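Sharing in case it's useful to others searching the archive later.

Someone asked me privately for the predicted structure of D-3-phosphoglycerate dehydrogenase, so I'm posting the question and my answer publicly. Question first, with the sequence:
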Amino acid sequence: MEKDKKIKVLVVGDEWVHTEDLVTVTKRMLQGYDYEIDSFDVIMDKPMSRDRSENIGDDSITEYCGKPQDLIDRIADVNLLVVHTAPVTKQVIEAGKNLIAIGCCRSDAVSVNIKAATDKGIYFFNAPGRSVEPVSDLTMAFTLMLGRNILRADRYVKSGKWDEDINRKTPIWDEFTTFRGLTFKNKKFGLVGFGKIGKRVAEKAAALGMKVVVYDPFVEAALIQKYSKAEKLEEIFTQCDFVSIHVPPLAVNKGLISKKLFEMMKPTAYFINIARGEIIDEEALIDVLQKKKIAGAALDVYYTEPLPKTSPLTQLDNVIITPHLAGQRTDLSTGSAELLEEMMGPFFQTGKKDHCFNIDQLNK
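And my answer, the predicted structure tokens:
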């Protein structure tokens, strides 16, 4: 980048990653440049929704907040665009005739049409790995909570039933004994997907003494050599005591986990999904849970978000449900902005493109 030319910047934050934090790291990245920053916030009305009724003119954008027109109205002279969940559609990129680079502080930047940016020769930077620790932590928390029946036992105590059952003249132990949990050592933990998060989950599951089995046809066998490799997805569902999903939210993965696979699971097995709701057949999962064909499930993501009050999932005692919070961390805003700075800063300060997401395609 030439430091003698003024850079016009547009920064778009939201309630999760604040505009002021993005502006702060942008100023550090552009130290030594002459720059001008415009900024605004988008409203996170339905974050992570895949069922929007409006047509934003770009089917590649699957998760976003705000309206493309708000960016189009401001982007004509912009050289650098920095966003979080704002929708950077093909139309936005076409309107940004002077764009040089786009930075998005998400790991899976599904709110940006990266292909359209690449076709125009625009450098794209993201924030890979920002959710690795919190998501892998919640995966293991779910594993422990399911295997030890923690939530049901918690409700039992809070309802006063423990006191009532045990302080009878003849104690009643029937419900109490149903809280007996399994031991995790040597149990098979099945991973579908072996990216950054999948690798970290594997390490944590192995630390509990579990036998990790991995299915990921896109990863070389040498990278999975510490664990067992499943050649077919069906092996994970028929053999494992826990099945956890960690594949990216790509169109090709929609409906990947089918009714057929759920029906292959052992009656003592547990299912965990912290990836995306549309990856699984949610109705099929509900069916096997209702019929007690599997021991239980823990879900942080759903086909429709927020989860409707009428969803059968809210009535089941063998499922843990949380409101898409896996990637949430106390330093989400500053941490995300600083990770993007780590990836993108060298591009402006030294010209290095090592962390540019689409550099291989641009070089071609």
